[in-house]
């Protein structure tokens, strides 16, 4: 079945991510409508997405019986009410991360969707980054042994606020870098390793730009103790571990040098990866999965490095570590919508790339990171 789709919002998320990805799967989705309140936004839609209808109110979207799926790409504080209205109108929804500013709101939406037999898909696209897919492959192959230290960065360089009118630069619910960049890193950690046993948050205003309570840098530390838990993480990695694991997540808007994305250490190897996944920049440049086979392929100049020793070696007399470059896996943002279509066809939320309950846990940890930072103490989970 081909599902008719409406998008709420006309920002970067609409034009760079959702519209190109949806249009690359014409056998699964048809982008029919965009909510654009301002005349200039409506004109932009006409220029960039000819043939797509614009409406000025959410009521019009919800009243349109032909629309099956609504993509909510609006400011975080609007997600809850807009998602609730769409669900009550019988629409499946995709919501930009974070699902809502609070876990309580997320719980309400999850309950409502289940009561109506509808799907909530949260756009945590960084699970499909080239670098994470490469790291996951190395871990699955056992080349790191048991992971003991995991450091992940998401850095940018911007010494000014974009604009007073840009919602992400305002002290509003769901604002700040923990919810913006940090939510990606927290989601990736939960995806790989499951829920931690404690969290410590530190937030900073490195640029000292008002409002000072809106952090522009953060460090979030997640601790995982030895565990005999059964089962696997969402990434398929075992939850049981003999050794403790420390996860350090960092984000900054004052990082000028080359971005060190991952430093991951295990008892048999170490993985280092610089650079950033190319898909966002490629989509901004106008590439799409439908017409550009190189979308998601990283430059070999930023290939990961791996130092490893054989798992079976005598650890009292380990050999010199083998050093090699690891060719990057291809990034696959389009898989988000492939998973969604599969879930819609089978009426099965377990087929989604990101379970709404996982997205809810991301919000909970973002909130706890802020609480920890304010109290200057570690919070046990």
Tell me about this structure.
The chain has 381 residues and is an alpha/beta fold. It folds into 2 domains: 3-118, Rossmann fold, CATH 3.40.50; 126-333 and 349-380, Dihydrodipicolinate Reductase, domain 2 (2-Layer Sandwich). It has helices at 12-23, 39-48, 58-63, 79-88, 103-116, 130-140, 177-193, 279-284, 334-346, 356-375; strands at 3-8, 29-35, 53-55, 69-72, 92-96, 120-123, 147-155, 198-204, 217-224, 245-252, 260-266, 269-274, 304-308, 322-326, 379-380. The strands form 2 sheets. Strands 14-13-12-11-7-10-9-8-15 form a 9-stranded mixed beta sheet. Strands 3-2-1-4-5-6 form a 6-stranded parallel beta sheet, sandwiched between helices. The mean pLDDT is 94.
Secondary structural class: alpha/beta
The averaged pLDDT comes out at: 94
Strand-residue proportion: 15-25%
Order of helices and strands: EHEHEHEHEHEHEHEEEEEHEEHHE
How many runs of DSSP E, i.e. beta strands? 15
**Major sheet description:** 9 strands, mixed
Characterize the overall form: globular
- The proportion of residues forming helix, as a percent range, comes to 25-40%
Rg computed from alpha carbons, rounded to a whole number of angstroms: 21 Å
CATH superfamily of the largest domain: Dihydrodipicolinate Reductase, domain 2
CATH class of the largest domain: Alpha Beta
How many domains? The number is 2
Number of helices: 10
């Amino acid at each position: 079945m081909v599902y008719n789709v409406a998008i709420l919002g006309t920002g970067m998320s609409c034009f760079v991510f959702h519209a190109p990805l949806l249009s690359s799967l014409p056998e699964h989705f048809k982008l029919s409508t965009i909510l654009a309140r301002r005349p200039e936004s409506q004109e932009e839609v006409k220029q960039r997405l000819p043939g797509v209808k614009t409406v000025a109110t959410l009521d019009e979207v919800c009243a349109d019986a032909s629309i099956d799926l609504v993509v909510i790409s609006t400011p975080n504080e609007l997600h809850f009410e807009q998602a609730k209205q769409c669900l009550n109108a019988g629409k499946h929804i995709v919501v930009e991360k974070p699902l809502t500013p609070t876990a309580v709101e997320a719980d309400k939406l999850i309950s409502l969707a289940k009561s109506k037999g509808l799907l909530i898909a949260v756009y945590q696209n960084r699970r499909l980054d080239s670098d994470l897919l490469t790291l996951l492959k190395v871990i699955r192959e056992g080349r790191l042994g048991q992971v003991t230290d995991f450091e992940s960065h998401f850095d940018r360089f911007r010494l000014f606020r974009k604009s007073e009118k840009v919602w992400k630069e305002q002290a509003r619910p769901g604002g700040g870098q923990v919810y913006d960049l940090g939510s990606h890193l927290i989601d990736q950690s939960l995806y790989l390793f499951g829920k931690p046993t404690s969290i410590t948050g530190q937030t900073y205003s490195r640029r000292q730009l008002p409002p000072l309570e809106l952090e522009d840098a953060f460090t979030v530390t997640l601790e995982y103790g030895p565990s005999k838990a059964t089962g696997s993480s969402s990434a398929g990695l075992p939850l049981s571990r003999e050794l403790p694991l420390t996860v350090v997540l960092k984000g900054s808007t004052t990082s000028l040098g080359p971005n060190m994305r991952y430093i991951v250490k295990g008892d048999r190897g170490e993985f280092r990866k610089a650079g950033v996944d190319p898909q966002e920049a490629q989509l901004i440049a106008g590439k799409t999965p439908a017409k550009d086979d190189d979308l998601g392929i990283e430059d070999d100049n930023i290939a990961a490095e791996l130092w490893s020793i054989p798992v079976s070696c005598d650890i009292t007399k380990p050999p010199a570590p083998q050093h090699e470059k690891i060719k990057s896996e291809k990034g696959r943002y389009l898989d988000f919508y492939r998973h969604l279509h599969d879930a819609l066809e089978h009426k099965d939320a377990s087929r989604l790339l990101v379970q709404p309950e996982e997205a809810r846990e991301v919000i909970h940890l973002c909130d706890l990171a802020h609480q920890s930072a304010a109290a200057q103490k570690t919070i046990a989970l």
